[in-house]
User: What shape does this take?
Amino acid sequence: MATTAETAAAPVVKDDASNRPTTASLYVGELDPSVTEAVLFEIFNIIGPVDSIRVCRDAVTRRSLGYAYVNYHNIADGEKALETLNYTNLKGKSIRIMWSQRDPSLRKSGEGNIFIKNLDASIDDKALFDTFSAFGKILSCKIATENGVSKGYGFVHFEHSDDAENAIKNVNGMLLNNKKVYVGHHIPKKERDAKIEELRNQYTNIYIKNIDENITDDQLRAAFEKFGKITSLVIQKDDEGKSKGFGFINYETHDEAKKAVDEMNDTELGSKKIYVSRAQKKNEREEELKKQYEKIREEKLNKYQGVNLYIKNLDESVTDEVLREKFSPFGTITSAKVMCDEKNENKSRGFGFVCFSSPDEATKAVAEMNGSNLNGKPIYVALAQRKDVRKAQLEVQMNQRLQIRNMQANQMMNNNGMYNNQQIFYGGMPHMNPGRNMYYQQGMIRPHQWNGQEGYNGQHQYRRNQRNGPRRGKYNNNNNNNQNQQAAPAQEQAAAPAPATETETQVQQPTAGVSGITEAELSKLSPEERRNKLGEALFTAISKINQNYVGKITGMLLEMKTNEIITLLDNPDVLKQKVEEAVKALDEFQQSQKNAQ
Assistant: This one.
């Protein structure tokens, strides 16, 4: 980005070792709501081994809050990720990465934080970062946007306050993309609001509406000049010169303007009563109207809290009168309404509302009428709820059901550590646990949760009677997929020796199967190399079966034990079955999320 500001003398960037991060924890912001831990793992694991990832979610709805934390094993990988992945486009949004600041005092102090306005619409986060990074180390950089479009201002937070001072000194008033920008210290919102409120209380400009169209500027001045010296006055007119019915008057002092508002509001001028108040900007007026609307709405909801009933499964023959008659024995009804479809000849939509005068009456009606028969159909009666409250409750219930399914899936595991012939993957979402030690239950990815020694352990049962067969060394997966395993010749079974001890079995290394990977080969690798090798093999195999969830399912399967992964890789039919089960469960979960919305 060619800018005039770049010609300014930039100071030498400090390299203060004492200010280096003490943990390899990164904050990742500006995330699309659909971004999951698995998606982030695929991106950040390219830099180096990831210790954990957590997408922060709403405690009730479990929806993403738009930011996450990525933890590396070492600071060097974190620094590399910060350099190479910052402002990467992910699902249409430019992600913002910075070191996680566990000490809130640095964020809240505002020290080193500057504000830039009058920015050209083409300047994005990265361009702003590149421009100001010449003045010192940047902790955070952000352009304010609305629906993906720049609002013309942004913020840059420097590590050192003197770097911020230099940036203000050198860039303020300079041209960025041919636009003169303002750069100054960031003022916290609380201080800005207090200052704005103070200025509002010292207004001199007043607004008058509902002005008679025959009233002239001179007549309006004559009516208002008795309150003080008027510096300007105007009645707004259309293109034809006719009055729009409103205007503005500016006084010399605040006291004069306040007196005019107090005495002239709701008085007659000409043939109409006028409205007089402090002049406001459009956005300020809209904000006030919004607050007033919310207040009225809240009062209305509180008024009917505990007295309004929701009734569903109504027969088409049920009308407002029938509903009122049926519920009137329980108390005084203030309103009864069956909801109808105006676009479909006003036919009943099968539900309605009954409002009582007191909560006791409503509670009694629920107890007596819920499940009762009305015109041949059993009806459901409950206290009416706001849409957002009901939606949140449904999402909680859905998550609870999914957790129960997770528990059931875990119970399906048999003693040798393999899954029975059941649907095993309910995963891919925050509250879904495909198997033991899976990261989805708590929304965390733990790529290196290895159970002591890799490979065989005492829990697994091995097919010792087929040590010389083509599939020797593999354990029985109890999955009824023996058609994929060539049976040992009868004479070989007859001559089979007595079962070997566990130690003897481990000494005899299995031959490479379809995947060409053996535990003997993997045991020579480091945990990171072992995981990468298995991950590449799984990714390749799963991509041939399903392209949509390949990354997600790969991450899930990598949490299994090494020998279990090799068994899946060596049994394409078994792998295909598990992938199809996972895809089905993921599709069902996504559909349930859509239905809940």
Summary: DSSP finds 19 helices and 25 strands in the chain. Residues 430 and 522 are 31 Å apart (CA to CA). Confidence is low (pLDDT under 50) at residues 1-18, 413-512. The longest strand covers residues 149-158.
